[in-house]
Inverse folding.
């Protein structure tokens, strides 16, 4: 299930954005949850322990505007797609300066929301989605919301940043490695993988995650893990500097 946040001080536009998100046809298969907020502070408080697949932000709001909220969100979740929604398109350059995925004008939401969601799905969400066998059914998991993976015999447990219960499934280690190839996951010891996008810092023999939880790093692997993490961090900073 995909999870989105909508933040707008105008109740009509909160309702309209939520309606357009929920009615998008591809979500009928995967499921979709929309959390609505009337103030940026409420959204930021929720984002301290919840990871959204995308955030839709009004630009002009009282107390804290959408641009300032976006700066704070970028510090929490550098990769989360941000979509600005405003009646004033002159703010668009500043919004794109914050690596906004899209800038939508409120008077054209009905026409623009569909193409925006199609691009969001194709560029961000679908490439991050795994289809896993769980209790005889296929379960879709968005890897952007996974903070760590724990191996326990023939069972693989996916642990999520938003405190959702761990998801166990039975797949082989070889299959797991195949599914994670090219994605920002690093094996830290025999029983753990960590999502590098969820890492706050690395200390000796442990990754500290943005949620405050820790993922152990074995002494034998520590040197290699540290080198790979620093290399990934440098690539990310180089990528971010282009925007």
């Amino acid at each position: 299930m995909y999870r989105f946040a909508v933040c707008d001080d105008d109740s009509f536009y909160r309702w309209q954005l939520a309606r357009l998100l929920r009615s998008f046809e591809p979500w009928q298969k995967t499921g979709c949850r929309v959390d609505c907020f009337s103030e940026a502070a409420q959204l930021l408080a929720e984002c301290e322990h919840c990871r959204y697949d995308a955030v839709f932000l009004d630009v002009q709001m009282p107390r804290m505007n959408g641009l300032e909220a976006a700066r704070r969100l970028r510090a929490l979740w550098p990769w989360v797609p941000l979509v600005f929604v405003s009646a004033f398109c002159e703010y668009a350059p500043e919004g794109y300066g914050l690596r906004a995925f899209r800038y939508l004008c409120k008077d054209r939401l009905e026409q623009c929301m569909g193409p925006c969601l199609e691009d969001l799905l194709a560029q961000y969400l679908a490439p991050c989605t795994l289809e896993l066998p769980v209790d005889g059914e296929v379960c879709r998991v968005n890897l952007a919301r996974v903070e760590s993976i724990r191996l326990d015999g023939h069972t693989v447990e996916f642990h999520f940043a938003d405190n959702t219960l761990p998801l166990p499934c039975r797949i082989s280690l070889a299959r797991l490695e195949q599914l994670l190839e090219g994605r920002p996951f690093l094996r830290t010891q025999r029983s753990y993988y960590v999502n590098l996008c969820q890492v706050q810092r690395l200390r000796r023999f442990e990754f500290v995650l943005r949620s405050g939880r820790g993922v152990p790093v074995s002494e034998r692997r520590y040197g290699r893990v540290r080198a790979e993490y620093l290399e990934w961090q440098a690539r990310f900073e180089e990528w971010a500097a282009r925007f």
The radius of gyration is 19 Å. The CA atoms of residues 205 and 213 lie 14 Å apart.
